[in-house]
Structure to design on (105 residues):
């Protein structure tokens, strides 16, 4: 037993994030992502926010490992929301729609 549980995510959620995200914010979001993904809490509402926050600072490609796990778990809606959130694009954009088609999302 690793001793990690979802309560750690609760602690990290209390961190006061600023509007302009920093590497400090990315660290906290990254910790939240790691915990929730390790526990396979893919439907936890905190996961989407944490993935978007981490990806916004560190870049979409930093989420590759998590994206693959979520694709394998068929979490298409979550992946679409995170992609749009990180890239600050509407799901209605033609380039976004094309990307979703390529990814089979």
């Amino acid at each position: 037993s690793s001793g990690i549980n979802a309560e750690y995510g609760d602690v990290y959620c209390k961190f006061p994030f600023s509007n302009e995200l920093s590497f400090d914010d990315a660290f906290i979001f990254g910790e939240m992502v790691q915990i929730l993904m390790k526990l396979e809490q893919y439907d936890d509402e905190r996961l989407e926010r944490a993935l978007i926050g981490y990806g916004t600072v560190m870049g979409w490609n930093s989420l590759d490992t998590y994206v693959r796990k979520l694709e394998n778990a068929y979490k298409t809606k979550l992946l679409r929301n995170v992609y749009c959130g990180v890239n600050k694009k509407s799901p209605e954009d033609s380039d976004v729609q094309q990307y979703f088609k390529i990814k089979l999302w």
About this structure: Helices lie at 6-13, 23-38, 45-58, 64-72, 76-87, 94-103. The chain is about 65% helix and 0% strand. The longest helix spans residues 23-38.
